[in-house]
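Morning F.,

Quick status update on the modeling queue. The single chain you submitted on Monday has been processed. Sequence for confirmation:
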Amino acid sequence: MKKFLFVLFFTGMLFSFLQGVSAEEAESEVLILEESNVYSENSKDSTILKTFEKGSIVKVHSSEFKNWFLISLNDEEKGQVEGYIHKDNIEVIDKEQELKSGYSKGTPIYQNPNQGSKVLKEYNEGKLLYYKTFTSNWYEALVYVDGEAATGYIHKGDIEYPVEDQKSLTGIALNKSTNVYSEPMKSSSTLKSYRQGKLLYFKTYLDQWYEALVYVDGEAQSGYIHVNDVEIPTNNPELLQGVAMTSPTNIYTMASKSSDVLKTMIKGQFFIIKHI
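Structure tokens below.
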């Protein structure tokens, strides 16, 4: 008899434990996508128990009703009560967050995953940021505000990612001093500078930046060139005939009048050129 009672007791304990595990597994943390009501029943015609603001983060449980989630609320008079929130108003937060990186587009870090919430910090365009996945439209990031660590949120539209399939290009330096920067931002340090007309080699990287390999003190280093600082030759150069309009008309070693003169022609002299 004692053995039978022990088996019943053990079975009951195991059942309770498994129920607890199942309930725990069913619990999810979700993001409120729009201002959302919690109803007393699985119907929008029932009593509204509470309203959550857009960007709130709450815990919910799955329910027997496929379009509704259960949520526990604390009521001052009744204590803990259960309500229902519609699935269209929420998004489940990633349980297995992944570390990612991308470049700022003048990116604000928000206090809540809501673009109307307070901005904790803002980064200049081109700054490399690190963050974790959160929802389909938001990342989670750790920032420091007045020396204190705080969790903030980055909207995916405020991040730029390097191109996956980089293309090798050549271009001509346009500025008197065309800089290669340490980061894809003109406020970063200059790794190297090239004179106007110098032919440069680089790869596609961001919408407004190319990536280049440069040597600084004998060490290879990745640098960045702004797209407006170089000119890309045409893919289909044309052979043209021309006539010298002035005397002398110079042919230069580079696409710059400050470069060395290879040859000088007199006014009226014909020549063949290739438009690049």
